Amino acid sequence: MGEPLPSREEQALEVLDRLYEEYPDTTISLNFSNRLELLIAVMLSAQCTDERVNKVTSDLFETYRTPEEYANAPQEEMADAISSITYYNNKAKYIRSATADIVEKHDGDVPDTMSELTDLAGVGRKTANVVLQHGHDVVEGIVVDTHVQRISRRLGLTEEEYPERIEEDLMPVVPEEDWQQYTHLLISHGRAVCTARNPTCSECVLEDICPSSKLDHDVDLASGDAW
């Protein structure tokens, strides 16, 4: 059928209900044991799989344990430690700069506000949201990664194209108490079923309310391209 519900609010609630049932235990897939490790892991995860990040941080977190140790590490040494991560040279610079600011401006503690986090090198709103939610139990918004961006557009929940605009558009539609889990549910669904290149629409629990379903429609609303 592939027909969305009459309003975006109704569509969002139905999507949440079905995905909560489909993925009851979904949560963040990055490994960390404290706020600093969480920050580093999320910084590394930009345009890189969580699986790859977890492999790298299993050694990284044994080598560097404090903000001072990250900040004082030579650029070449830090880049080498994360060399299997995408854009490792830039990420090494960001990590060293961010941790230096944490030491100098925040007494060695990872900040707990959006403005202070996004002032750190290499930390945008998406990264800050993850750190706030999972490090400080503060939910200020919706984390919009590539899965959330793609699936929210496919489901007709937003027509915005860029992450910050998508977040702004979704926040009045998705109930605030579901902001954190909305991200995890869509990530789980994006990995299992609603993949970027070849979604398995015939096995999707949302197919009958999805205006991008390959079974009923000719266009992928995520990209605007024909199937």
Features:
227 residues; mainly alpha; Endonuclease Iii, domain 2; Endonuclease III, domain 1; 2 domains; two-stranded antiparallel ribbon; 11 helices
Give structural notes.
This protein has 2 domains: 8-26 and 144-226, Helix-hairpin-Helix base-excision DNA repair enzymes (C-terminal) (Endonuclease Iii, domain 2, Orthogonal Bundle), CATH 1.10.1670.10; 35-135, Hypothetical protein, domain 2 (Endonuclease III, domain 1, Orthogonal Bundle). With 227 residues, it is mainly α. It is built from 11 helices and 2 strands. A two-stranded antiparallel sheet has the order 1-2.
What is this structure, in a nutshell?
The protein is built from eleven helices and two strands, in the order αααααααααααββ. By secondary structure, it is mostly helical.
Largest sheet: 2 strands, antiparallel
Physical arrangement of strands within the biggest beta sheet: 1-2
Measured distance between first and last alpha carbons:
17 Å
Mean pLDDT: 97
CATH topology of the largest domain: Endonuclease Iii, domain 2
> Can you tell me the CATH class of the largest domain?
Mainly Alpha
Binding site for [4Fe-4S] cluster: 194, 201, 204, 210
Protein name: Endonuclease III
Domain HhH-GPD: 44-192
GO molecular function: 4 iron, 4 sulfur cluster binding; class I DNA-(apurinic or apyrimidinic site) endonuclease activity; DNA binding; G/T mismatch-specific thymine-DNA glycosylase activity; metal ion binding
